[in-house]
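Dig into my protein:

:::
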Amino acid sequence: MPQSLSKVYVHLTFSTKNRYPFIDDEIRNDLWEYLGGICRGLECNPIRVGGHNDHVHICCLLSKKITQIKFIEEVKKQSSKWIKTKGERYEKFYWQDGYGIFFGKSVRDRCGS
């Protein structure tokens, strides 16, 4: 095959440190947009980004140019730095160390693509 093709749908989920409800109405929509922007910058096309007050869900196409661990590391690192600039309330913000990342057709179906 003269070219490389990749279409890997992933569902990434991770939570705030100790599940603290940092993701409030004040930053929620901006955070979803910012996370989508990080994904685009990493060439991981976001399909859906959302979550709740203590966790995030990202459905995207994983770029063939990045490993899953590097993708997760960059998403969490960049978004954590961004959140900490959003005011005094968020200065002690951290993501929890763990995460879940899932692949496959069922992920594509859940992403709505």
Notes: The domain at 8-111 is CATH 3.30.70.1290 (Alpha-Beta Plaits). The CA atoms of residues 38 and 78 lie 8 Å apart.
